[in-house]
Amino acid sequence: MKMKFRQRQNRSSNDRWLLFFWIANLLLWIVFFTIVCAKDEGDYEIHNNIAILMINGEYRSFYPGYNLLVGGLWKLSGLPMAIAAGIVLGAAQTITIGFTRKLLELLLPRDLMEQRPLGTALLALAVCTMIPVFFGGMSPGYSCSNSYTSPSQIVNKPFIVATIYYWYLCEKEGEDRKSLRVNQVKRTVALILSCFTKPVFAMAFVVAAGIYYLLKAISEVVRANKSYDRKSSARKALIWWLRCFWDGVWPEFVTGLFLLVQYAYGVYLQDEMTLQYDSIAIKFGWMHTWDQMVDNVWLSLLLAYLFPLSYLCLRPGRVKAFVLGKTKEKNLFWKMSLIYGVVSFFMMSCLYQEGSGEAGANFRNAWIYTFTFVHTASVCGLARDLRESKDWKKPANLIPLLALLLQIGFGVVLLAYKLYFYLVFKTRLIWIVK
Asked: Is the pLDDT of residue 255 over 50?
């Protein structure tokens, strides 16, 4: 009886701390982004200008998500634009952390989640703020979605993490048919909403999911084909393959059709979109987009993925267990991470946008979410290993842990630097008063 009472008391205390965490998290992000929007003269100011024009009917875009949200709040509430944008961005960042926590709850052991709910929330915050190691003239935005360089990218993040979360729910063993359909619909909605804010992630995810389900359907056919007789095996195998493939990939098929319509609408609107881009034509050029972002591609990649590489390479058994292992729960997320990483890397390496959009290297917005996939998987893997071994001083655990803390530290430094820069050096206020 006393034990049950103590458990209820602990749960109530955890709930209060979690509520305080989310409220403080939301308010602090709103303050941070309000300061940035009030003083930034780059991408934030451009997008907020477009939001005003769009909400007044003077401008159209084929991915208006950020502009409609911010412009709508600005118009309905009468708030200064900087505050309206800060509220939207702060809410988006908080929702991203919330979905990241839900994803971690699926990937980490259940008892660990129940014992440390606040710890999971802090871990999600760390995943959403860590950045690549960078120095000199390097920019953390080349390989990471946590660099706060673009407001539309920040608003896009909740839909992207929600897509990953619902995809994983669809693939987990034990999901019944009804839950599978509901989660597939949610995944489709999240993907299409991500297209409204910045469509490049959806382009890469549609291709990656197609490859993933193609490989999955082939393995299902090989397994099922053993029960067929030779005369009917080819026909039944083909039918089974088509069924398995379509059953998994239809949300991405629907999104692919939406992307085609969206791009056609963008071509139609091209003459009106001169505030953003003078051209939306897609060109081919090997490493052209990378050249816009970094001087040394391979050094930059090494520094961006310092933690996952140290986690995998210091114990080869981890590669076998999490990438090549036969246990679905262990290799499922890693497989999709690797497929998406390869697709988005080649998309960024081969494609670029012609005209003024070229300088912004828009196709990096597919690649940067590989950072989210791989670092989330690595954090969960390291947490499992530390819990099982209970010896964090071993080099195979200590070095990845230090690399993780280093990347989190760089994220904290970036936030502090941006606050210092905007509060001390930027004196011009943009829309602090209406």
From this structure: yes
